Amino acid sequence: MNDFGLFIFDITESPISGGSLIVYARKERIKEKPVVQWFRDQEEEKRINDFSAWQEFARQAFFHQEQLLDILRTISKQGKTIAGYGASARSSTLLNFCGIDSGLISMIADKNPLKRKLFTAGSHIPINSPEVVMGTKPDYVFIMAWNFAKEIEEILKNKFNYQGGVIVPLPNTPYVKKII
Fold it and tell me: Taking 90 as the threshold, does the pLDDT of residue 54 lie above it?
């Protein structure tokens, strides 16, 4: 940020974005809150800016990709249908990184009417209302808004009387569970 004339003065953690940070910066240098130095110290202690840390991150990302694709391909090979839930920007990143398209996920449910009857960026999976998508009675629901997994599971169970499987890709090892 300094390269662009911006100076960090505060950092907070996002309550809904899986551990993401909100970094506050401005064009004028003002007194930093102590939390800024704390994060710098953490970066140094954990060696986050070392190339080896980024290599390990890449290794873990590709391993996670393999785990998720194994789950989706196994379900697909069994002739089961998979629908997605939550057409967020972060889910598009996941879809594109993993190479997931409409061959694995038939369509994605999203509550936002502005996204309906459109397609996900890059992966071209159709997006529709939760009512339309759940009306197709998918065998599995891939929860793409994983930071709201519990809430989405409750919606699936209580609003749609869904009793199939759900796939939760993140934040840790991808897993499948049955909604009862």
Answer: yes
